[in-house]
Specification:
alpha+beta, two-stranded antiparallel sheet, 66 residues
């Protein structure tokens, strides 16, 4: 068996991505991937609009406790 991995998947926790973790897992299984890893963006510039992740549907910057 050949191992096929994708270690750079952006689920909808990243503000620049669409698709849930469950959707990506299902697609990975259907595609025959043996391993996947989810990554998100969290920059350290709190004034930039793109420097957030979504936590429970709320934009959260690196400067906020959650």
């Amino acid at each position: 068996m050949i191992a096929i991995q994708d270690y750079h998947i952006h689920p909808n926790y990243s503000t620049d991505a669409e698709g849930t973790v469950d959707e990506f897992c299902a697609a990975a299984i259907q595609s025959g991937l043996t391993e996947i890893a989810f990554t998100t963006h969290l920059d350290t510039n709190p004034v930039a609009d793109y420097c957030h992740v979504l936590v429970k549907g709320e934009k959260v910057s690196s400067q906020k406790d959650y």
